[in-house]
Write a structure and sequence with these properties.
The complex is a heterodimer of chains A (204) and B (178). Chain A is built from seven helices and no strands. Chain A is mainly α and 204 residues long. Chain A has two domains: 6-49, no CATH class; 61-197, no CATH class. The longest helix of chain A has 42 residues, at 61-102. The radius of gyration of chain A is 33 Å and the shape is rod-shaped. The N and C termini of chain A lie far apart (80 Å). With 178 residues, chain B is mostly helical. Chain B folds into two domains: 1-93, RNA polymerase sigma factor, region 2, helix turn helix motif (Rna Polymerase Sigma Factor, Chain: A); 105-178, Arc Repressor Mutant, subunit A (Orthogonal Bundle), CATH 1.10.10. Chain B contains nine helices and no strands. The longest helix of chain B is centred in the first third of the chain and has 22 residues, at 21-42. The model of chain B is unreliable at 94-114 (pLDDT under 50). Classes of the chains: A mainly alpha (204), B mainly alpha (178). Chains A and B meet through α1, α3 and α4 of A and α3, α4, α6, α7 and α9 of B.
Chain lengths: 204, 178
């Protein structure tokens, strides 16, 4: 019988008994050269296993945490934005029908309602752009991730405030909603800048 | 490998499932080195391995709810890490030709100055062969498991391992003179 091939020697190291393996095993027991080759193979594998454990050059946990939080906030934002839509409708109704119920429609209130509609539309547009950019699927540097996570935390807080606007006095509700929606658009603008340019300093 | 950390990793599982940052950090500390080591042994560069490390833990934190406790937690994390590292390998499309033409310039046994050390020889293997060697010989994956991870056949995994060992044997100067 000729000497064992590397495939056959490797098969001898596998658990179980494939067809033909017993014959190869018998050969390896009887043949000094093949036995020595099998020993060398075992030693090589043992040496590979004994190679030192390589360590990352720096701690990546902060980056991972920031990216994880960002993803979570984004999912929360998506859920809240449905609530935001309902809220926007409520506020708009309050602005449009409130003055009719109360008396004369004021020009200022109509302008305010127009601005609110515009700003909600702008907010939706920015959210859609950020969603399309899909930052979750991109590896970003740590500082950018931290800034983005901080902006998204502020957005989440803002959305909670927006939900509470509904409980406010009807006279102050439209102005407060307008102020919060403006702030929301500003934060989304800043967030888009961070993703688009990797900016680690934002004015907002 | 952080044996203390690995042994205690299961203890922080409820916290990780609840999204607790302290528990996540404890899990990261326990598995950081073995995950990075696995990624670095498969990927060509440290940067790639660090990206795999980041992607693995993000996936672990996002999908920890899917871990049902069947098999060890390390086994579950390791499968995610292996899969990410192999994805990175495919994405980068490492050229098989980056392997030196060993058949053209065989090393002579007596030329000890040219004999490679094990680290260098492993680095010299092409990405796929190196990944199979590491997953099979060190991590203990079967050829069936490697075939599933790589989306290839069992014979592909076996032949990659045989080819890799034949080359390592030659490069390490282990060939017996005829």
């Amino acid at each position: 019988m000729t000497h064992l091939t590397i495939e056959q020697l490797l098969a001898l190291r596998e658990p179980g008994l494939e067809p033909g393996v017993q014959g190869w095993r018998d050969h390896a027991t009887a043949c000094e050269l093949c036995r020595a080759e099998l020993d060398r193979l075992d030693q090589r594998v043992a040496r590979i296993r004994a190679l030192p454990t390589l360590q990352p050059s720096r701690n990546r946990f902060a980056d991972i945490q920031a990216q994880y939080r960002r993803g979570r906030t984004r999912r929360r934002l998506l859920t809240l934005s449905l609530g935001g839509l309902a809220l926007a409708a409520t506020v708009t109704l309050a602005v449009v029908f409130g003055p009719r119920i109360g008396g004369d429609p004021a020009t200022a209130q109509l302008a305010e309602q127009q601005e609110l509609d515009d700003i909600i539309a702008r907010s939706r547009q920015l959210e859609s752009v950020i969603e399309d950019y899909n930052p979750d699927r991109r590896v970003t540097d740590g500082r950018t991730a931290v800034v983005a996570a901080s902006l998204e935390d502020r957005l989440a807080r803002l959305d909670r405030q927006l939900q509470l606007v509904n409980l406010m006095d009807q006279r102050v509700r439209p102005q407060e909603a307008l102020r919060l929606w403006r702030e929301r658009v500003g934060l989304l603008d800043a967030l888009m800048d961070v993703h688009a340019t990797g900016a680690t300093y934002v004015r907002y | 490998m952080n044996v203390f950390g690995l042994a205690n990793a299961d203890a922080v599982l409820p916290g990780v499932k609840a999204g607790d940052p302290a528990a996540q950090e404890a899990l990261y500390r326990a598995f950081e080195a073995p995950v990075f080591n696995l990624a670095r042994r498969i990927c060509r560069t440290t940067e790639d391995a660090e990206d795999v490390l980041q992607e693995t833990f993000l996936e672990v934190f996002r999908s920890i709810g899917n871990y049902r406790g069947e098999g060890s937690l390390w086994g579950w994390v390791r499968t995610i890490a292996s899969s990410k590292a192999l994805m990175r390998l495919r994405r980068n499309k490492y050229r098989e030709t980056d392997e030196l033409q060993d058949d053209v310039t065989p090393l002579r046994r007596e030329d000890t100055a040219l004999r490679m050390d094990l680290e260098a020889a492993l680095e010299r293997l092409n990405g796929t062969s190196r990944a199979v060697v590491w997953l099979h010989d060190v991590e203990g994956y079967t050829h069936e498991e490697i075939a599933t991870l790589m989306n290839k056949t069992v014979s592909f995994s076996k032949s990659q391992l045989a080819r890799a060992h034949a080359r390592l044997r030659r490069w390490l100067g282990e060939e017996v003179p005829a």
